[in-house]
Design goal:
- This protein has helices at residues 13-21, 88-95, 108-121, 127-132, 176-179, 201-204, 208-213, 264-287, 293-321, 323-328, 352-357, 392-395, 399-409, 421-425, 437-447, 453-459, 477-486, 495-501, 512-528, 551-556, 577-580, 605-612; strands spanning 2-4, 10-11, 29-31, 102-107, 151-152, 167-168, 224-227, 230-233, 368-372, 378-383, 411-413, 558-559, 602-603.
- By secondary structure, it is mostly helical.
- The protein has a three-stranded antiparallel sheet.
- β9 and β10 (378-383) form a beta hairpin.
- α2 (88-95) packs across α15 (437-447) and α2 (88-95) packs antiparallel against α17.
- The chain starts with a strand and ends in a 35-residue tail after the last helix.
- It binds protoporphyrin IX containing FE.
Length: 647
Amino acid sequence: EWYDTYSGHRITAERAAALNASGLIPYCAMEIKDCSFNEPRRMDSTCNNPHYPSRGAILTPYHRLLPPQFSADGGLRRAKSGRPLPNARAVRVAILPDGRVSSEEFTQLLVNLAVVTLGDSSSIHDTVNYVTITSTCCQPGGDKDPRCIPIRVSPDDLHLRTSNVRCLNLTRSITYQSIGCVDDTVPQERINLATPMLDLSTLYGSEGYRAAALREGKGGRLKSEVFNGKEWPRGNGRVCINNQAGRGERRCHQAGDGSANGLLGLNIAIMWYFRNHNYLADQLSAMNSCWTDDQLFVAAKEINIAIFQNIVYYELMPTVLGYNYLVENGAIYPGQLHVDDYDETMEPRVSLEMILASRWFHVLQEGRMNIYDPHFKLVKQLAIVDFTLRTGALAVNDTIAGITRGTYLQACASNHKVIDPDMGERSLGRVQRVSDVAAADIMKNRDIGLPPYNEYRKLCGLPVAKDFHDLRHWMPQEHVEALYSSYEHVDDIDLLVGIISENPLPGAVTGPTLACIVTDQLLRWRKADRFWYENTRHPGAFYTRSTGGDQELERSQIAVHPRGRGGGDTTKTFATARELGEDKLPRSPYLHECNELTPVLVLPADELRAVARPLLRGDGLRLPLTTTGGTSGFKRSSPNIILYLTF
Ligand code: HEM
């Protein structure tokens, strides 16, 4: 059957053929084979909800928390007065001048985990596109090019006044309208080039044929090769345009999507999950010698995804938004059991606000990259932005190990109202002479028609500012002044600008408006994904397994149980296998053709730590996660899979 990517409706084969003839497939339509409740998660994420097969797939639309706002002629939103909004670069420099202040609490791991989270569910760092699609936006007539929204730089710009740079190249997002799937009578809607789930599609791929090419075909493993004693994905991709051949930088990995070779932080985090997949497959294979490649692959993949989802919910997000805030809002649960809150009426989408507002994380990005030797001696300090699309550098001298150590040992930037000069002036490295990611972030809020900051405060039930003076209740005075001198009216302020300016919530790194937007998304991810690791409505569901009534043991053990309950169960929480009666568990049609009555994998607490260890395998880390060595949210153990990232 064929489905329209934008509406999700079924279309005729004739219509699909016509779209194909116009070169509009895969963007405008997708073919989906019949769904079954008894099959595992599909690579392209179709059939996540078998009643609506296209939901959750790549190339589907984003969600909007509020309807878009464009000017009357369909252009960028204007100020209340009807005049253009203030220049994005000028606003950026006013609220976030270039500067370096290191966090006293958090390491680069926070930003690396954040980027892999966002990057997995949205094509955020489709770096190849950003740098190669259009580099002509600043040339004469560039601003008339529909693909362009260049940013002007004033001659008195704080950081660029001594240069001759007066314009920053910037391309628009790809929409259904710009591709030609939908006509211009409806407002521009962006296409999500990734699956909107937290499903490690960055690693595993989101198109069936491509995903199959990544598999070894035996042992449930992903294709790999050993280079200098370490395991690496194979591949000779051409996107690594910044590889320095003269320095022996040749690797360019074949992985789920292009972003796995993109930004350094994303690149190495994907490598951790890559190595972890093969580690898990080997463990499972040793325990279940009769399993087929498919059985091993699916089980290893789902465990890997479960680890990823658990880290995001119980390690990363409590650190950024505050643990209590997330519990109060139902994004995580303090109890011991898995909570199944799957809601089949919820559409699996990522909100545009989540993606656009999460550009706030750029503030925390440190520009320098410390490389440590195995004795944790600092050997080098490099510029992170020069390592985008440069996978080859990771393997030379096992640099990935040195960077991983740096990820754990080095502080990230502090949320101290400055941005690292490399992010502010050269975020695209050598590819573009000047590029200001934070100004691009503000401009992209407008490109996509996000309503102003105050409207989101209202949506979130937060006090709304009637005038600039009111902002003083939740922003530092110097920010209120910067906003007052930039915007004509308090209702004009861009969402991201307001978010960057807010004071953080207690116990959190971010303020309440971003916390509200991200929490909405956390609920969406867990409730709308039938294969969410805590959910029971699929045949490969995980079960906590009893081993004799000891509460402590029950909590610390998790079995990847061969016999999930299948579709349609509405039980609220997971029962332990004992409570449920093991023999009553239906047989999983895809995992168990052998060892039917034997639990697949039981991981006591010690081994659970070992599940996290391969994320850093070969790097020999014994380091605190925070630079101060104190406890951060990362160290808190979760009630589900217990992951100690310090061991
Ligand atoms: C060296 C580090 C980084 C660099 C050089 C970088 C650079 C960029 C660039 C060039 C863009 C696209 C700008 C545009 O044309 O619109 C972007 C978008 C984005 N980045 Fe980063 N980034 C970095 C780190 C991070 C981190 C740590 C996060 C954490 C979440 C992050 C989240 C995002 C998001 C959410 C977007 C928006 C994408 C969208 O609208 O689809 N980035 N970044």
